[in-house]
Design brief:
Elements lengths: L15 H12 E2 L2 E10 L5 E6 L23 E3 L1 H15 L3 E5 L7 H12 L4 E6 L2 H5 L1 H7 L5 E5 L6 H8 L8 H11 L4 E3 L10 H13 L15 H9 L6
Parallel strand pairs: 3-5, 5-6, 6-7, 7-8
Antiparallel strand pairs: 1-2, 2-3, 2-4
Helix pairs in contact: 2-3
Bound molecules: iron/sulfur cluster (SF4).
Iron/sulfur cluster binds next to loops.
């Protein structure tokens, strides 16, 4: 099977769980994972970031580098200990208290992420886990494994309110669109500290679909604030949108 890169107008929808497994084969070796960069940025009031490789969706609005689409061509493998050292060292230099790994889906490579969180747990740093909720929705045990970390904040990015919207904007088969909602349901039931951050930009998500998304979230008991996102014209986002046949810029 050819590895799924960015989606185009004629792309056939894929199984995101299968893509997660294929991506892990390319980006994960034992408990090590591929990364391309380390830096601090101003988001979340200042955060030290490890830029990892690999995701199990192909969102048309995605801003991350093309390492997402061609993970075999980018990055070097790092152990959780090496990542921890780099994150903390950059955080200390920049005097920030938050850490994250971004640039793809951090829940791929479970052993890598959990070991990294173990290391962070022994510090006063705070870890922000930004996730698309696909693997957390599939595996409630994964959510339960996160429960023991007291300095963790999970931010679930919901991409769609309908199967059609999911398929059109992430490239994944519509039948998988509920997985992020299942992740939200389990996070809520297990009482983790989390928020929902939907990509509900009206140029991408129709009003009726946004209403349906909010209805679904309420139905599963999520009534907190929604950190709604808008699509910015990053070079990578613009290229991906055009390839997939969207013209919003
Ligand atoms: S927006 Fe997030 S979930 Fe979607 S493809 Fe990019 S990194 Fe993956």
């Amino acid at each position: 099977m050819e590895y799924q890169g960015f989606i185009t107008k004629g792309s056939v929808p894929f199984d995101p769980l299968e893509l997660a497994r294929e991506t892990e084969k390319l980006c994960i070796k034992s408990s090590s994972r591929k990364y391309t960069n380390f830096y601090c940025t101003g988001v979340y009031g200042g955060i030290s970031t490890g830029y990892l490789v690999g995701c199990c969706l192909r969102c048309v609005f995605c801003w991350v580098s093309f390492s997402r689409d061609f993970p075999d061509k980018y990055g070097k493998f790092f152990t959780p200990e090496e990542i921890f050292e780099r994150l903390v060292s950059n955080a200390r230099k920049a005097k920030v208290k938050k850490l994250r790994v971004s640039g793809g889906e951090p829940t791929l490579g479970k052993a890598h992420l959990l070991r990294l969180l173990d290391l962070v747990e022994d510090t006063n740093f705070f870890f922000v886990l930004e996730t698309n909720g696909i693997l957390l929705g599939k595996e409630p045990e994964y959510v339960r494994a996160l429960k023991k970390y007291r300095n963790l904040y999970v931010r679930v990015s919901i991409k769609a309110g309908t199967p059609e919207g999911f398929e059109r904007r992430t490239g994944g088969k519509g039948e998988f669109y509920e997985l992020p909602y299942l992740a939200v349901e389990t996070l809520k039931r297990e009482d983790l500290y989390f928020r929902v951050a939907p990509m509900s930009d009206s140029r991408l998500m129709p009003k009726e679909e946004r209403r349906e998304m909010i209805r679904k979230l309420k139905e599963i008991g999520y009534k907190d604030y929604l950190e709604e996102e808008t699509c910015d014209p990053y070079d990578t986002s613009v290229k991906r949108l055009r390839k997939a046949g969207f013209s919003i810029f």
